[in-house]
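User: Round two. Same drill as before: sequence, then structure, for each protein.

Assistant: Same drill it is. First protein:
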Amino acid sequence: MILLRSLVFYLLLTLTTLVLGVAIILTEWWIPSRWSGRLGNLWGSVNLSLLKAVCGLDYHIQGLENLPGTGAVVAANHQSAWETIALRGLLPARQTWVLKRELLMIPIFGWALWVSKAIVVDRKSGPKSLKKLVKEGIRRLEEGRLVVIFPEGTRVPPGEQRKYGAGAGLLAGSSGCPVIPVAHNAGVFWARRGLKKYPGTIDVVFGPPILTQGLKAVAVTRKVEEWIKGRTEQMPHRRDSS
């Protein structure tokens, strides 16, 4: 039954991505406005509702009041695809995502990301990609956007750890903008590889702003990593088998 529900959700996710993805592309190309961001939020919130209705997968949020709304770096741990849906739906509409180039190759979804002012990095280019991230990221922050980044760079299963990249700390330190750390345990219910979406409640915590003025990138990265890892360690790493 869990597999069947998961497949139904994937079908609905595909449909919402096609419909709203095309709407975002057309909106940005023909009548650029804040509507594309609102459509992105709609995509996220609709699919969160579908997850709850179809798969019984809900979420519980703490600390949403810590979001400044504009001009901040949002750094979250990365365990599954859930957080890409959730953050798109939960954060204010004016968002810019830092993402790998390969995602742009996905029809409709990747094109919608591209026209939504995403910052595309090539992880193989090393220092060059960091320079691009800082340059474009500062421009987006000055526009009053939230820049969303996953410092781990890839999905990491619950209970495991991976060294954080310097991107979020470097951007925040260079711009002087705060970092909003986000911790969750989505991977407990939605594995990074696998079709099944298990019922339950994902814990999500938005931390207090980490002020970065006067701090070097290494210090910012360390503060972000310590906060996120500290909170995720307090969250369940396994589903309740009862």
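Second protein:
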Amino acid sequence: MTADGWRAGHVVAFARRWESDLVIAIVPRLAERLCARAARWPVGPDVWKDTRLRVPETWAGRWFRNALTGERLQPIVATGAGWLAIASALATYPVALLVAESSSRHE
């Protein structure tokens, strides 16, 4: 998966798909440099700013639940591509394991 934006070089992500199941793992890279002057985790918009992960456009509109925090998020379509904001995926915890929800699980 490809990252774009101000902190693109500081994120590693990959997706795995099996039949209709889909997961995305996201972790910071070189985290010490992200938080060099602050004793905190690399989370939220102050750290990640406009950094985003390119996902297949067909994934936009699907809901994902972070298996570690329970937070839900949805990729968006912008400029002809699907994008997932890293600041949202890593809003409260420094790593994410996003599991696509099936249509029967949508609220």
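The mean pLDDT is 84.

User: Perfect.
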